[in-house]
Amino acid sequence: MRYWFLMPLFAMISACEGSQSTKSYLSPDGQAEAFVKQIDRGACCSTSYEVEIRTGATKETVFSGNGAGGLIASWKGNNELILTADDMYQYELTARLLRKQPFHADGSENSIRIIYAAKRNLH
Length: 123
Hints:
1 helix
């Protein structure tokens, strides 16, 4: 066995295989749905999160991050998605998602705002 020194590396990589779960959150008007995907990579790795919003046939990833806590989505009306996390140390966020018709008849923007709120446990 020529490459025996790589065995610990392969064991570590295989130990990071984990489970995946998805929760969905429907907007009050039913026109948009947010999907929060949690990927638990095991004891040696952090948990990854991804949030995707679907409006009709359109879908877009609006959040991705890593952390040890949980991530919860909640709708505030039809046009605002609030993401609350316990312990997210690295993330990327899209501030808003334009709908198929980007403007209303009155000229106002037709979009979904995404707000990230870090929940702090101060003792």
